[in-house]
Amino acid sequence: MVVAGLLWYSSPLPLAALTINFPTLPDGNLGRIYSFTTTVTVENMDLLPIDHIDMQMSNVADPINYVVTCSSLPLSNGESKNYADTGGGAVAVTATISSASDWGRGYGYRTGYGYRDPEGQGEHQFGYGYGYGYATGQGTVTITYSVTWTPPSTWPAGAYNVKLLVYGDSSKKFSGTSSFSLTLPPAGGGGGGGAPAAPGCNSLTPYINTEGVFNLTATFQSQDGKAQLTINRGTTGKDNNGSPLRQICILNMTEPPVPPADTKIIGLVYNISPDGATFTPPITLTFTYDPAQVPAGVDQKKLAIATWDSAASKWIISDNCTVDTTARTISVPISHFTPFTIIARTRPADLVVSGLTISPTQVDAGQAVSISVQVANKGDLAGSYKLTLKINNTAVDTRDISVAGGTTQTVYFTSTQSTGGTYNVDVNGLTGTFTVKPVVVPTPAAFTTSGLSISPAEAEVGETVTISLLVTNSGDLSGTYKVTVKVDNIPLPSKDVTVADHTSQQVTFTTAKAMGGTYTVTVDGLSGTFTIKAGPPIGPTTAMNWWVIGGIIAAVVVIAVVVSLTVRRRAM
User: Fold this and answer.
1) What order of strands is seen across the sheet that includes strand 368-377?
2) Cβ contact 497:465 at 8 Å
3) Which burial class, exposed, middle or buried, applies to 53 when counting CB atoms under 10 A from its CB (0-12, 13-18, 19+)?
4) pLDDT for 263-298, tens place per residue?
5) DSSP state of 302
6) Which helix (H) or strand (E) is 127 found in, with range?
7) What is the pLDDT of residue 470?
8) What DSSP designation does 205 have?
9) Measured on CA atoms in the order 195, 198, 204, 210, is the torsion positive or negative?
10) Which one, of 109, 137, 136, lies nearest residue 125 by Cα?
11) Count of CA atoms in the C-beta half-sphere (13 A) of 40
12) DSSP 50
């Protein structure tokens, strides 16, 4: 056992508070699975000292360019974490805690005496805060990390360090480091324990138990890194005899089966074995492809993974693939082993035009008509097509389009006509018609008069006589008409009447006469009459009453004589 780091309590007695150990740290091979364990022990006097734990594996000679970091290792019993290969190889870590019932997250004041980066030896205060640890006074707890790492085969051989960094908070940490050596694999392969594995083969000993269940999530790659299997923790892998799998091989086939007609293999064909292996649930196969190898006109999103069916001697193309054109990968779930490859379908473009649609089929002059067709590519490669719209056999518009394989595109045209009539439509042989309603030119206002009415037909002298008539506009536009009524050819004051199109309006005039007689009313060729009654007639002649007349004369004479005598008497 290698004791790589210690943290001590300073009082009341020097007590080990936290230790970092590497119980197993063997040498290994580059490009092969490397397994080791490391432990972090929290003593019974320590209370919640751990905020998080990181781990680094690096080349001693060049730790800058050849380093892999695993941040925030698992802190719960049985918890596993997988760190994807970002250039330093994939890593899987599982935590086993000896006193898991007392291990958890809590709040406390943390302090200790020991070596801490970067301050060095001394007493170090962390203050109050949250973290993971063991309940104080209850005994020691140990975290054992089981680590599997596949160091890249391209990294340099030589001495490597593994370093564990235990953080008391976000920045203050204690560390422990130990070394091991990695060398290039000997001829014939090896790695992972047990019998040496052949090149391209991987031992499953670090991953699988006696029941065939994977205790860790495992990732295996082909030698060129283009094919990768991902097997999740809890997956059961059995061979054709029902026994737990012992190894997995991903090998390039030197003489692969011929691809189906109108297809092309992208990259290599990989024979994944052992034959007859089964997985429950399915595992994930991922290929990395080179876009430069994809034929021109093939949509990368339609790449597929094909499986070789040895019983039927044919390739089966999966329809359950996931293509990531950004990462340039294609994945598929699989439950058994056989040869696999990437297939590009390459049937030539086969473009068919159909579905001519004209809407609406009847419009007013100047109204747009939408004309559309559908162009389907029944091939796999993208194809170009030229569409020509003809109206009454004259080409009026064109469209140059590109249609991806296996897709349909709708193409739209518009036509606007100003003259009424029926128009013939032709789009690459598909025909139809639409109709433009004739243009109607509105007629100007046209007026007629009718319905002359005179009331009353016979009136007294000075009585009002009302004259009325209808003015009708038979035109398409509104207009104003001057109405002039004449009585015995003498015009009454005229009236201007505005009449809407195709309507009639009544116009009224009045007059009164002081002399009796018959009067004639005329207006626009219409005529009528009315009569004014004369004054009351003189009664019949009666006989003279001469006695009365004589009496009157005598009275006048007497009055004259009396007046004369009176005047003379005054004069005297």
Assistant:
1) 351-359, 368-377, 408-416
2) no
3) buried
4) 999 999 999 999 889 999 999 999 999 999 999 999
5) G
6) strand 120-134
7) 96
8) T
9) negative
10) 109
11) 31
12) B
The residues with which 47 forms a beta bridge, in sequence order, are: none
Distances (CA, A) of 19 to 57, 95, 114, 125, 510: 19, 16, 11, 18, 126
Laid out side by side, the sheet with 383-391 consists of: 362-363, 430-436, 421-427, 383-391, 394-403
Question: Nearest to residue 111, comparing CAs of 141, 131, 138?
Answer: 131
The type of residue at 151 is: P
The DSSP annotation for 461-526 comes to TT-EEEEEEEEEE-SSS-EEEEE--EETTEEPPPEEEEE-TTEEEEEEEEEE-SS-EEEEEEETTE
Instruction: Let me know: does 245 contact 277? Beta carbons within 8 Å.
Output: yes
Asked if 148 contacts 88 with a C-beta cutoff of 8 angstroms, the reply is no
Range 169-203 burial, b when 16+ CB lie within 10 A, else e? beebbbbbbbebebeebeeebbbbeeebbeebbbb
Residue closest to 113 by CA, chosen among 38, 1, 12: 12
Q: Which single residue is written with the structure tokens 């195709």?
A: 502
Closest CA to 240 of 271, 212, 276, 204: 276
- Res 532: pLDDT: 93
CA trace torsion 329, 333, 335, 340 (10° rounding): -30
Strand, helix or coil for residue 215: coil
- Collect all residues with Cβ–Cβ distance below 8 Å to 208 and sequence separation of at least 6: 214, 215, 237, 244, 245
> What does the DSSP assignment read for 394-443?
EEEEEEEEEE-TT-EEEEEEEEE--S-EEEEEEETTEEEEEEEPPPPPPP
Q: Which residues of the chain have pLDDT under 70?
A: 1-17, 24, 43-49, 99-140, 169-198, 535-548, 561-563, 565-572
Give dist(CA 262, CA 245) in Å, integer.
37
The token duo for 427 is 């789009």
Reported for 190-194, long-range contacts at CB under 8 A and 24+ positions apart, including other chains, are 190/29, 190/32, 191/28, 191/29, 191/31, 191/32, 191/33, 191/34, 192/32, 192/33, 192/35, 193/35, 194/246
Burial of 135 (0-12, 13-18, 19+ CB in 10 A): middle
Q: Residue 301 pairs with which residues in a beta bridge?
A: none
Residue 314 token pair = 């044919």
If DSSP codes are grouped into helix, strand and coil, which group holds residue 292? Answer: helix
pTM for this entry: 0.47
How long, in residues, is the chain? 572
| Residue that has been written with the tokens 């060729």 in this structure | 525
**Pick from 300, 364, 288, 373: nearest CA to 331:** 288
> What is the rounded distance in angstroms from the CA atom of residue 216 to the CA atom of residue 264?
36
- Give the model confidence (pLDDT) of 1-11 as tens digits: 444 444 443 33
The residue type of 368 is A
CB distance 479 to 445 below 8 Å: yes
